[in-house]
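Give me the fold.
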Amino acid sequence: MSQTTADPSVSCAPAAPRRRLWRLDTLWLSTPGLIYLAVLLLLPAGALILLSFRDPATGAFDLSVYRNLFAAGVYVKTLVNTFVISLQVTGVCVLIGFPIAVWLAGMSERRRRMAMWLVLLPFWVSPLLKNFAWIVLLARKGIVAQILNGLGMEGGLDLLYGRGAVVFGMAHAMLPIAILTMLPTMLAIDTRLQPAAMTLGASRGQAFWRIFLPLSMPGVTAAGLLIFVMGLGFFITPALLGSPRETVLGQTLITQVQKLFNMRLAGALATLLLVVTLLTIALYDRVFGMSSVSGQGAGKSHHGRLSARVGNALISLCAQVTDAAARVLPTRLSRWSLTIFVWIILFVLIVPVIAFPPMAFNSASFLEFPPTSFSLKWFEAYLTSAQWTGATVRSAVIALAVGALSTLIAGVAAYGMARSRSKLNGLVFLAFLLPMIVPNIVIAVALFYVFAQIGLIATDLGIALGHTLTALPIVFVILLTTFRSMDWRLLQAAATLGASRWQQIRMILLPLVKGGTIAGFLFGVLHSFEELTIAIFVGAGVKQTLPKQMWDDILLSIQPTLAAASVFVIFVVTILFVIAEKCRPR
């Protein structure tokens, strides 16, 4: 008995110092990732901003480029266009995404995961491909126009090249992000609250609007912030589906860098875009609090009594409208209306993905849907073209390198954060999300400016480094979720049974995190394989990735070979997506 009581006393003495040392070690594990972010994000962005404030001849502080920028009305109009379009897309995504998220939250886990595939697959298919499909489907003689003509809406149907097409295309690309952002907050709501309110006399509409809606607002506002910030740097859809009236800052940046090589003006435009983004985030923090982004609560509230009264009045009005509709409509119809609406939206989300294969097998020399004949000649043209196959191989090699590097950097940092309880964890987490917060176009221009000075422009290494930077947030979040879901007591139990540190890692840790690590790697590969913005700037038109080759083909001359290449991309994306979803932690 004396020996039994003596052992714990001996082992407890150095335990606290060892735990403190281990926690200190885990904090240092995020250092490589933070250095990577500082070197490839903060320093290039800072250099680009300083360039816009420096006189190119003397190096002195100078604001002439900003005076010229605001004096030229075209840039002010472009800034306003960017802001308004992003705001419109945010409203559409939140209004349409909210009922879909509600519908998904009410499902069982198994059915929800099946339905989520219809949301996630279009999300991982590049906006470039989806916009290309809409160009064919919404053309004046496309299938949508034919259907509308068959319904009696005859005459010239201009569905493309306008504000409506731009907002529709951007909302279509970003709607899955809104749904994915809102859903976790809704799943965390106690499902017993609404039935409890109804037992106390509240109607179904009152229970929803007064209980479920306020509790889900952190996710809704976070989705609105994310969509708006991403919309500020979005340029693919306005370039393909819009007219000159819908020109946004991203398009102007491409013109200034690639055609005019006016890096100082490009730096000023990028600075404006970054300032608008930061002001939006600051306003969001002022109104809702940044804690609502993580779903931890509503955060700070500075609404005031007037806005609170307006909000309560709107909720009351919505509850009354819902109750009135429930009294008029049959119960079964009111329940099925949400399901019908959701399936219509899911069908629209998936349409561009399933439209490519038929177009690629058409024998005509132009793209049409549905095809009128069958042929494999465009696949043969794709496979025998050195330009297309070279771009495909380059994209695949770069994507594999990006997946490995981002998984290594994010995995080490995620492990360190999961094991640490430091107060600095929140700052480290925010740092790894910076590439998602800063507009992608700003990152690409900043990397172009810095890489041009060190010889990394038009190199595979430069593209891979840029892709790794923008892939870090999603890979980091997946791996952090994986490590946080672990029961670390299993390692301690193995140690008490005599397992060495290497045996604990090989037999306990690695099997438990294997699925999440594979998922993080594959999502990093997917991100790189379809990334366009950095490929446009860092590749400089010399090192063509597959998305860049597609972009050039769409802008210059659309050929059915593009559809064949798109089918290959969708096939690869679908396979990798299915594997990643199977491996991803529940």
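Residues 63-198+217-302+340-354 form a domain with the MetI-like fold fold (CATH 1.10.3720.10).
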